[in-house]
Amino acid sequence: MADYTLLVQDPTAMSTSPGVDHAVIGGVVAVIVFILLCLLIVLGRYLIRHKGTYLTHEAKGSDDAPDADTAIINAEGGHSGADDKKEYFI
């Protein structure tokens, strides 16, 4: 005699598919979006702080001088070549 089994489906039961878990995919996508957002904030702060401007140590009042020699002679900062220490590298 053949043994037959009867399959009964419950329409109120939730179906679970063994393949794709949507909660895991949603969590991974949320983590990736969070990491990209953090990287965008860090990159934005870096670009704002390093705009390409830099601090120069020019003598005050050298903007009005007609040439570089006059600016050095009339400098208020005392940056004349005679007062500097000389360094020798061997």
UniProtKB/TrEMBL annotation:
Residue span of region Disordered: 59-90
Alphabetized UniProt keyword annotations: Membrane, Transmembrane, Transmembrane helix
Compositionally biased tracts (Basic and acidic residues): 81-90
Annotated protein name in UniProt: Neurexin/syndecan/glycophorin C domain-containing protein
Domain Neurexin/syndecan/glycophorin C: 43-61
Record's subcellular location: Membrane
A single cellular component GO annotation: membrane
Source organism per UniProt: Synaphobranchus kaupii (Kaup's arrowtooth eel)
Membrane topology summary: Single-pass membrane protein
PANTHER family on file: GLYCOPHORIN-C
